[in-house]
Amino acid sequence: MEIKNVKGNTFCIDTGMTYIPFYKINDEEIIMLDSGWKKEREGIDELLEKNNFKVVGIICSHAHIDHVGNNKYLKDKYNCVIAMSAYEALLCSSTVTLKVYYSNETLTEVTEHFGHMVCETDIMISNEQDKIYVCGIKFKILHTPGHSPSHMCIITPDDVAYIADALISYEVMAGAKMPYAYILREDLKSKAKLYDLECSEYVVAHKGIYNDITKLISDNINFYKNRAERVCAIIDDAMTMEEILKEVVKRFNIPVKSRYKYALIERMLRSNVEYLNEIGDIELNMDDGFLKYSRNSSSI
Ligand SMILES: [Zn+2]
């Protein structure tokens, strides 16, 4: 793990897998943008200690396990304030509310896999808010729902935009068998919204630093649409969600060895299938008591 300077007082921790940006208020105090994955905790902890940093605030882009995994740990350690979108803050307020999101797992599984995401949020950010003050520092907010229900991009006082998961890098695109969006149609709208953003630097969580993201936005939109089209091509008859999943796992060569992985792939597939349904490429019908998706004749 290492620290990279992005611009001015904006830096990021390179965990290997992810960039976690932070804003340096002074030699000691920092505000983190996301807190990373639990697996990355030891490395992040070591890096913070080595640099004598004290985390005074965390602003979270969205409540995914690899972005809020150390919220509670860092809050307990530094007594820092946590700011998050109101909706995702409520999601992280207990394991029962987390189950709203992880609905295809039992409460016991949710507690076991995601229990460490539960944290107390001090500042709830509403969907209308376009800025936030944390420890007296102003950050601009751009709401980019879709990847998660209330995903947002955060712009530091150095004019560095943390894009988080609203875009993915070319390396991730190359390896992603099925990219994820909670609601793909909204996510594509949010990606298009990024064309209007004019910042000096852009940090993509998985993982890249860019000074121009115009091409990356177009390539992301095409990549996500193309993956959905590949799912569409698999639906060659009236198929249940489980039948589609079975085919996708086989044809995309996705290893699914646990119920946890199955639940994850199911969530990823569902967003693609719902998108195809929303844009009219497939339709959902009752067939002898089963819900089955089939391709619309115009899309074949
Ligand atoms: Zn995410």
UniProtKB/TrEMBL annotation:
Ranges where the Metallo-beta-lactamase domain occurs: 19-206
Record EC number: 3.1.2.6
EC category name: hydrolase
Cofactors that this protein relies on: Zn(2+)
Keyword terms, alphabetized: Hydrolase, Metal-binding, Zinc
GO MF annotation terms: hydroxyacylglutathione hydrolase activity; metal ion binding
Keyword Phosphoprotein: no
InterPro entries noted in UniProt: MBL_Glyoxalase_II, Metallo-B-lactamas, RibonucZ/Hydroxyglut_hydro
Pfam families with a match to the protein in the record: Lactamase_B
Protein name per UniProt: Hydroxyacylglutathione hydrolase
